[in-house]
Structures are given as structure tokens and as C-alpha cells.
Amino acid sequence: MSAAPVRSPTLRPHRMKKEESFLGKLGGTLARKKKAKEGDDLQEEGKNAINAPMNPSTVDIHPEDTLLAEENEERTMIDPNSKEDPKFKELIKVLIDWINDVLVEERIIVKQLEEDLYDGQVLQKLLEKLADRKLNVAEVTQSEIGQKQKLQTVLEAVHDLLRPHGWTIKWNVDSIHGKNLISILHLLVALAMHFRAPIRLPEHVSVQVVVVR
């Protein structure tokens, strides 16, 4: 790691505080049996909600959480109060239950999104099951390089599915492997919408985030 001087935790605090909306007006059951037009309308609503603009907001964070070791490092953190929001917690629970339901035959049990999805293993199995296709990746890899290579392959397959339908990609290999919960949630919500998952997502879910540069 670089030995560059650590930046001050008070650097431009008000410009870093934002509110990110995940679902906006989205609500109701996403059923696979919906008519084609209804599904298209629902997907369009989901895209608009996920891409909702971020508004300035006041967030209290611990100074030690804003310390950066490298000159060009950027870190996105979730305000602790947002993590306790009932709708935010419900969104996470619904997505975890959905993943576990899809992968029940694989005997995979996800308990924490950041810890269980960052290395690409679960995402690989999830996409293979949803898209009914096999990805050409190593089954198990422990090295960081191997994990990122797997993630790259998995995310490229995801992008091939989503981009033609107008989805804005709000995640990448580094953010997923870095256990960025915001990126992971954007990815999972997009997959749930695209494959019309038979789940009920909470309405008007938003979270306070702090981007430190």
C-alpha cells in the first residue's frame, strides 16, 4: 500500500453526503407469469427508480471511517442509521431469501450479501440458474486475482443480458470484490427485475451514503 500521507477526515464533508434511491416507486409482486407488456412496464419503472438522482443530505460519520491511505482512493460508506431503516433491512432480507430459494438445489445458503457474494462464486451460480446457461469459469478460486477474473466473466455475462434493455450499470469488479453493499444491491435488484423474480420488494427504499475522495 502506498505510504502517501493520510488525508484529513474533514475534507469537503458536505459535498460527499448523498442519498441514493434503490427502488423509488417500485413495489408489488414481481411474478414470472405477468403479461409481456406488464413486465416491460415494470422493468422500465425499476430502471427509473434505481437510477433516481441522489440528493444532498446530512450524515453523521466517524472521522476514522474517512481516512484514506492513497492519494486517489475513493470510498463509499453507508450511514449507520440507514442500515437500521426497516425498509432497507427488508430489501436485504428479501434479496437474501430470493437467492437462497433460487440456489436451494445447490445447497448454497447466503447469510450476508457482502461476505458471501464478493468472490463471484455465488453470483456465478445465481446467474447460471437464472439464465439457464453455464459460464466458463473455475469452480473454486482462493486468490484475489482468480476471484476478480471470475467476477469479470460473471459480470460481463450480466452486462450482456442487461445492457440491451437499457439498464445503467452501477457496479464493477472492484466494487463487488471490495464488498460495496450499494453496488451489490444495485446488481441484485437489476437481476431480480430482469428475470421478473417472484418476490415482493419494499417501496421507496433509500440509503444515505458518503463518498470520500
Automatic annotation (TrEMBL):
PROSITE patterns: CH. InterPro entries: CH_dom, CH_dom_sf, Parvin. Residues 89-196 form the Calponin-homology (CH) domain. It is found in: Cytoplasm, Cytoskeleton. One of its GO terms (biological process) is lamellipodium assembly. One of its GO terms (cellular component) is actin cytoskeleton. Residues 1-61 are annotated as: Disordered. GO terms for molecular function: actin binding. Residues 37-47 have a biased composition (Basic and acidic residues). Keywords: Actin-binding, Cell adhesion, Cytoplasm, Cytoskeleton, Repeat. Belongs to the parvin family. This is PARVB protein. The gene is Parvb.
